[in-house]
Amino acid sequence: MTGNTHFFNSQSITGKPKQQETLSEEELDEFLTCLPKEKGWRTPNLFLFQGFWCQPKEIRAIISIQNHFIAQDTDVILATIPKSGTTWLKALTFAIVNRNNFNVNHNHPLLTHNPHELVPFLEYKLYADSNRLPDLSLVPSPRIVATHVPFGALPDSIKTSNCKIIYICRNPFDTFVSIWHYLCKIRPESLGPLPIEEAFDLYCRGVTGYGPYWDHMLSYWRETAPNKVLFLKYEEMKVDACNQLQKLGEFLGFPFTEEEEKEGVIEDILNLCSFQNMKDLEVNKKGKGAISNFENRDLFRKGEIGDWMNYFTPSMFERLSNVMDEKLEGSGITFTVS
């Protein structure tokens, strides 16, 4: 297991030569001219690719993933929309699966590594380099990886294998506020500021990274199955953490024993992975590069439920409520927003 951290730290230089066709810069530019586009949040444009909005570099990486990633039955895929609890889910999953390999209270990798280093994104880390493919044979089993793409865009090998998919969603009201704050921090100065009113209009029209959000949620919700897709809600994880962690451990095939429960192992993992603990760690205060060379500290803001109430006007509340009612009607997905 010690090779786990080494592998994720060396992916910028480790990989196999290209084996199949990959889009070059010129081919990607030509391909983009065929796609609908809208103003981007942190890039000049977002493009509608396979039914969802994303950036040019993401499109190239996703094509590479779809062409090359071969899932194993023991794989664990963490799927999220940006800013819906991704970092927390990565930390919890890594801690649960590896709890017999590392002491939660002593020299645990999560104390010295950002969760995104230990559980890499397919599109932002493993397949981000268009010139080489990662050597996934170096990753210890079970391989835990993450993605933001909707279910329909996952490689066929993930859909047809016995690997497990964990999806976490968050109240779209809070998700919008979190996305806007995060992207304002990393948005290039050359693009100018992104007023909340403008961002909100894009969001309600579904023009956000990997959105529309409601379509993203529904794509995984419809695939929920006992041994394939576990659908979690951020709010339920926050309010009922112990029971939700037990559910997560059971689904992963790493259930907590009665002895572990009595010894407080669940509480230890929750404390290790708590928002405040992770935010206060030195690696997350000063570290850089866990995701596309952005500052790790920008990944942690508040992590609260209901922060949207500090930003929404009555008209914003009405508009997004109407969108959610329309898009999620009859699905069974509901959120408490008052």
Automatic annotation (TrEMBL):
GO MF, one annotated term: sulfotransferase activity
Domain of life of the source: Eukaryota
Keywords, ordered alphabetically: Transferase
Broad class of enzyme this protein falls into: transferase
Keyword Transferase assigned: yes
Designated name of the protein: Sulfotransferase
Residues annotated as domain Sulfotransferase: 73-332
Region (Disordered), start-end ranges: 1-20
Biased segments, Polar residues type: 1-14
Matches recorded under Pfam families: Sulfotransfer_1
EC annotation from Swiss-Prot or TrEMBL: 2.8.2.-
Cross-referenced SUPFAM superfamilies: P-loop containing nucleoside triphosphate hydrolases
Family named by the database record: Belongs to the sulfotransferase 1 family.
Keyword Transferase tagged: yes
